[in-house]
Amino acid sequence: MTTLQEPEPVAPISEELVERAWKDAPGIPGFFTTVDHKRIGIRYIVTAFFFFFSAGVLALFMRAQLAQPNSHVLSAETYNEFFTMHGTSMIFLFNTPVLAGFGNYLLPLQLGSRDMAFPRLNAFSYWIFLLSGIFIYSSFFTGHLPNGGWFAYTPLTSTNFSPGINLDFWGLGVVFVGISTTVGAVNFIVTTFKMRAPGMTLNRLPIFVWSMLVFSFMVIFAVPAVTVAAGLLELDRIFGTQFFNPAHGGSTLLYQHLFWFWGHPEVYILFIPATGMISMIIPAFSRRALAGYLWIVTALVTIGFISFGVWVHHMFATGLPPLALSFFSAVSLLITVPSGVQFFAWIATMWKGKVRLTTPMLFAIGFLLIFLLGGITGVMVAVLPFDWQVTDSYFVVAHFHYVLNGAVVFPIFGAIYYWFPKMTGRMLDEHLGKISFWTMFIGFNVTFFPMHILGFLGMPRRVYTYSGDVGWNSLNMIVSLASVVFAAGTLLTLWNVWRSYRGGALAGADPWGADSLEWATTSPPPDNNFDATPVVASRHPLWDQRPLPVARSGPDDATHALGLEGAASRTAALTGGMRAEPGATFPIPEETVLPLVLALGIAAFFVGLLVKVVLVGAVGVAIGVIGLLAWAWKTGEEPS
Ligand code: HEM
Ligand SMILES: [Cu+2]
Predict the structure, then answer these.
(1) Using a 6 Å cutoff on CB, does residue 62 contact ligand 1?
(2) pLDDT surpassing 70 at residue 553
(3) What does pTM read for this prediction?
(4) Which residues surround ligand 2, an ion (CB under 5 A)?
(5) Residue 552, SS3?
(6) CA dihedral of 613, 619, 620, 624, whole degrees rounded to 10
(7) Which pLDDT value is given to residue 9?
(8) What is the largest CA-CA distance in the chain?
(9) Distance from C-alpha of 483 to C-alpha of 489, rounded to nearest angstrom
(10) pLDDT (0 to 100) of residue 637
(11) Which of 17, 117, 201, 470 could form a cystine bridge with 190, CB 3.0-4.6 A?
């Protein structure tokens, strides 16, 4: 069993030894070979934000075009390309990966572990994400951007109506990036079940960990559907199969079913970790434990399940049998119950606590208000006759931006203010943060609220212009001006990050007085995260267990990695069972370039398919196979 002891005043094993075991090679080689979850997590976040700002620029172009009737900022064709790239980037290249990035950075720290369960797989999933993003964005250089909307419905996207390679960047890119999401999810699940600090039972998991667990299971069941949808679309497009061609026995509705079987859960895949962030931030600044922990966990899991039963609400206008539609309408309404449970738990936490209005907390409260409105319009469009009126109008554009931009992006900004001090050791400027929040909050609502009204006034989505005499002029102008305000608000945070990174106030280990384990180690954490593994006896270790007890290394394989000896030998403890009992010692792999090699091989394979050159694809497969073999070979290696 674990031996407990007070934190040791003097380390019996030299820091130098620990450092030598964990330091990445300096400079460029270390950059390409690292398997450290913290470096990878931050990379994920930075890369995702690059796509966020790129997609934001596209949105501003669209709004410039729509500010006045009959404008010529963008042509009709370019407008199609821009909304497709905007939506695709936001969902596939920003929202999903940025959450995976926070998960990567935070999970091992919150679990009290030294890394993820599969560190090399972690590096691999990042490289796949980066390369698939470059793949999709390289369409800019060819001048043939995807233009079929972010859901690429057939038959519009078949080669008959969309010749050229525009759509192939999308179809192949979606299959490509799905690899990253899926292996990432497997990693989160195994890490949560096998790498918890001793004593961290499932009902002591931080809610953010729970949310990443639900995220991961949902990814594993949902992403195959979109991979199949986009994959079959590409088979139709490249190899001439007829899956989606009704003239040859195919079905266009099949595409919609497959797409939305992923597409609806996807919005909850994004929303659930965002709520997980909120459930960490609100208690920290209410100075009180989260109200209704078990209720919240139950709600997260329930939302995960229900969200797989509602995809047809995106297909209400397709003429499916009314009985089926009523079923999906009812289930869609049902999802408000667990969402409401979470909402009341957050309110109760603040109600009973002492709220400090820091910047992360402002973003959390802003989220609550926006989510309330996005939820209400969600209930509205779940009602069949209402949906038939507003489908494909600006009302829907307003609704999904309230959910995606409001209820996901606001928590992510809150999370940046909350965890930046941990990641860099420096505080973000609170004053600037608050200005950024208010600019974003006001800009957001003035941008997206009037879109509801434009929808009622009959403005369809995905139109590149409109005539001046239908009564949409002033609202469109307001929306476009406000979108610039919102964008300016996000830039203020970017500037804040830049400034603080270079010289912000020092943060210390636990600047917010929070309760979870990431705050137990220094900011930024050392490469090995924890010198000795913390031992958990409470849901709020840093509030209830002062000083935090740590484990000592034992002589056997089960406990060897727990203490300083584990840190010096680059190992982590594998734990299991309800109480996270230590079971074995797990050597953390050394840095390696193989994940990058495999990812490059896969990238070349997709490029081969895109340009339809067999040789390129074959070279890709060859590189991939070599990388994979070398990787499997190294797995058998004894730790040095
Ligand atoms: C500055 C903030 C933003 C502005 C001004 C903006 C604006 C727009 C505009 C003008 C459209 C095209 C509407 C149409 O013609 O039908 C659009 C579509 C879309 N936006 Fe945004 N957006 C913003 C942020 C976001 C964020 C943060 C997300 C997701 C995280 C997002 C997701 C989408 C999606 C999925 C579409 C649908 C694309 C399609 O119809 O295929 N947007 N947005
Ligand atoms: Cu949905």
Answers:
(1) yes
(2) yes
(3) 0.95
(4) 264
(5) strand
(6) 160
(7) 47
(8) 82
(9) 10
(10) 55
(11) 117
